[in-house]
Amino acid sequence: MYSFTINRLADGNPDDTGGRFLQSPFWGHFKGCNGWNPLRFTVSAASAEGLTVDFSVSVLIRTLKKGILSFSIAYIPLAPEVSACTHAQTALDNIRSYACLLREFAAALKPQLPKNTLCVRYDIPIDFSSCEDRDFYVTSLSFLSRAERFGLKKCPVDIQPPDTVLLDLQQSADDMLAHMKSKWRYNIRLAEKKGVTVTAFRGNDPDIESALDCFYDLYRTTARRDGIAIHAKSYYRALLALSADNREQGAPAVTLYIARHEGDALAAIMTLFCRREAVYLYGASGNCKRNLMPAYLLQWTAINDAKAYGCPVYDFYGIPPFADEQHPMHGLYLFKTGFGGAVVHRPGSVDMPVSPFYPLYISAERFRAFWYKKIKKLIRGR
After folding, report:
1. Which residues touch 44 (CB under 8 Å, ≥6 apart)?
2. What is the SS3 string spanning 191-208?
3. According to the model, what pLDDT value does residue 88 have?
4. At residue 363, what are phi and psi to the nearest 5 degrees?
5. How far from each other are the two terminal CA atoms of the chain, in whole angstroms?
6. Angstrom distance (rounded) from CA 310 to CA 320
7. Which of 12, 98, 119, 193 lies deepest, with the highest CB count within 10 Å?
8. What does each C-alpha distance from 230 to 113, 238, 278 come to in angstroms?
9. Strand partners, 280
10. Crossing angle for the helix pair 233-245 and 208-226, to the nearest 10 degrees
11. Is the pTM of this model over 0.90?
């Protein structure tokens, strides 16, 4: 059992607090410009055993309206990080303690949330080195939640990608190259030898609009080819602008990289650098001159820039859970793991319901996921 002291923080500059980018004031401010209501709190949790845990947390509120109906979801991405919250002796004790914290924190947070909030949704910030360890955690969490009535529910769809690749930037550039697959080193050199150039753009550069147009044209090509959904161009423009406008206040650096060859735009990526991590946010590529391997040079350029910025790790941000040739994103798995980083697996999204109407919402969410992931892809012949 925990007792909580929760204090709401006033809105401040969208700066870099040194935490995960999803928990930064910067990201909360950005999401606040795109349909979410960001709230930020400092929390002190005291356990019955006398252990006190202090943490800060960003909570994103999404309010959905359908006719006269209105309800909200409180989303906490990759938090709370409270590795010191238990001194348990077994893995199950650790899981039980963290599950208890999530349940009781949701209850303590509820008075701060809109009255129509259905659930508090967490992305659990724990990294595992194997799918087996991650799956044991998720299975144990579900078992304990049922057996001890914690109420936590695994979400039908994860909000953040639960599997990713983390590249250690504290090693030298030569070591990073040495740890890559040989074909990856070859492709980087090939792109350079064939005259592929990479240009970096920030949100306040004079030619950012033309660069953004170029990126978005490539992104639409990627979306049509791979069957993915993308935001309106204004979303990416706002992200670049917010970063550039607040750099003097310490906001994370958001950068657009474009690879060109003889005037042709071949591929582009968008990254975010902060003190905790560098993150590969978005990637786009065209259909011409793919044999020049522009994507490899783009990533290598961003990796070196992130290292120079001082980021300790480069997060490739999203892969299939393992190397499965039948998986539609198998090529993405091979590409991102080929740079030599460590594959990590996270538990994904879990809900703590705080309303009796939660089951209705989750049924609708399951249907929506089934429609978009199964039926629409079947209609498109994918």
Report:
1. 4, 5, 52, 53, 54
2. HHHCCCEEEEECCCCCCH
3. 46
4. -65, -40
5. 49
6. 28
7. 119
8. 29, 15, 21
9. 271
10. 140
11. yes
